[in-house]
Write a structure and sequence with these properties.
Layout (H helix, E strand, L loop, with lengths): L3 E2 L1 H40 L19 H23 L1 H4 L11 E2 L1
Antiparallel strand pairs: 1-2
Length: 107
Amino acid sequence: MGFTLSVQHTISISGIETARSLALQLVAAVAYLIAGPLAEQIFEPAMMPSGELAAVFSFFGSGKGAGMAVLYTLSALCMFLVGLWGFSCRSLRNLDILPDRDLDVQA
């Protein structure tokens, strides 16, 4: 009595996971490269006492470090909104109750 597994199914899932992991790493690398210049050249000058965003985001203060605080807060708000959007999608919200796919096992 022997078992044979369908290796093709496993390889296709493995390939999808590898591609997803690569895409996530590329997006993270681009985000790290963009965050520094964005904070230093756009948000920090805009949050100086005479900057354009100083009046709008006055609760962060003004001066050195306030631009990075605004960037961090806006990033967190965007991630929260993406999470809410994901929760509003029924297929994503019910993902954990979908039946698992079994490998083809022949006895």
